[in-house]
Amino acid sequence: MESALTRRIVFSGDLGAPHSPFLIAPVSPERADVLVLESTYGDRLHENRLNRQERLAIAIDRALADHGTLLIPAFSVGRTQELLYEIEDILHRKALLGPAQAVCDDDQFLPITWPQVPVILDSPLASRLTKVYRELQDYWNEEAQVRLGHGRNPLHFEQLITIDSHAQHLQTVNYLASTGRPAIVIAGGGMCSSGRIVNYLKRMLADQRHNVLFTGYQAKGTPGAAIQKYAPSGGFVELEGERCMIHAGISTLGGYSAHADQVDLLNFVSGMSEWPEEIRLVHGEVPARKALARELLSLYRAQNRVVDVLVPTGAEPLTRS
Predict the structure, then answer these.
(1) Which burial class, exposed, middle or buried, applies to 64 when counting CB atoms under 10 A from its CB (0-12, 13-18, 19+)?
(2) 3-state DSSP helix/strand/coil percent for the chain, to nearest 5?
(3) What is the mean pLDDT of the chain?
(4) Which domain of life is it from (predicted)?
(5) Domains and CATH numbers, the chain
(6) Pair 212, 246: CB distance under 8 Å
(7) Which residues make beta-bridge pairs with 162?
(8) 3-state secondary structure at position 72
(9) Rounded CA gap, 294 and 320, in Å?
């Protein structure tokens, strides 16, 4: 039993975005007197899954039309697996999934026609983690379970080729760079500052046949951010001390963030049976915290409720409804 003097303080931690096929959506606690709430994306809304998958399909079609490779820098945990999940669905809907008909060249195994276009996962860490994800299928959401029930395996489909050794990696880079053969490559190094994506970029970034698709935030000062910034003017980027011209197509696709967006954060609060009387916003830039604070106050006012919302600067509450 809680006494009248007891206050229940809830820390949200990093709230995940809902609708991930591999994770159960965040569940609001029953109640809180004080909520310490993250606000990483308190000032923005993520692109919905349907739109992002359509744009991913367009990016794949564009790469194939250019007769080159689509390079996707990706983080090993979460991002890679969601990309594989959606690529498998795109190929399934296009009725393009099929067994790989390959040619062998120095242990290289690559499909040769578009219906068997290779989806190449070139990241040892991401490959190991993807295997762990497959072992945890019992925890996937309902949509993913339906696909499994229909005999599909979104993380282990026939066109998926995993590159393990460094020698295989270099062979694949050289093969795709020299032939311009259509392929989809997901490689480690989400911000292009390290990982196997760097070798692909060094060989292929100057070739207009190829395309690079960013699906995650590129921090200021990283090669990924420089590519995004200087690509429109045909500029260059420094990769491991080497100046690389940017002639490949560059695009950015939103909606893959693992963090909850503004609506998700508001829903976390409104999903409680008893709403908190005090909310402290943390883990976000000042503009994001202030934007979320305004939305929380509006939410409470709409329900004739009272709340103190604090942006943690040591000051008094931002305002009180």
Answers:
(1) middle
(2) 35, 20, 45
(3) 87
(4) Bacteria
(5) 9-45+258-320 (3.60.15.10), 50-252 (3.40.50.10890)
(6) no
(7) 121
(8) strand
(9) 10
pTM, 2 dp: 0.80
Residue 187's DSSP bridge partners are 73, 122
Distances, alpha carbon 270 to alpha carbons 15, 30, 78, 296, in Å = 15, 10, 27, 10
Q: ∠ CA 51-52-55 to the nearest 5 degrees?
A: 90
Determine the Cα angle at 31 with ends 29 and 311, to 5°: 90
The whole-number pLDDT of residue 3 equals 55
Render pLDDT for 33-49 as a digit per residue (tens, 0 to 9): 999 999 999 998 887 77
Structure tokens of 300? 């409470």
| pLDDT tens per residue across span 100-111 | 444 334 444 444
Q: Classify residue 116 by its DSSP letter.
A: G
Cβ–Cβ under 8 Å, residues 239 and 223: yes
pLDDT of residue 314: 52
Residue type, 216: G
